Amino acid sequence: MIKILDIKNNYVIDRAHEADCSSNCLVPCAVLNLCRMESGFLAKSLVKKAGSISIEFNEI
Hints:
By secondary structure, this protein is mostly helical. It has one domain (about 1-50). It is built from 4 helices and no strands. The chain has helices spanning about 1-5, 10-20, 25-40, 45-50. The radius of gyration is 14 Å and the shape is flat. The N and C termini lie far apart (about 45 Å).
């Protein structure tokens, strides 16, 4: 459990670093949020209430 909540020795962030993810990659953040939800630190009802998160790239 501490591996996903610790700031310095975080398993997800370590794997993202090894995969050469850029600093603005959203995947590690999404994985951390999922880990928090599955661990009970983030209420599933709150997640459902908030809805989906998306990023749209519209051409100018």
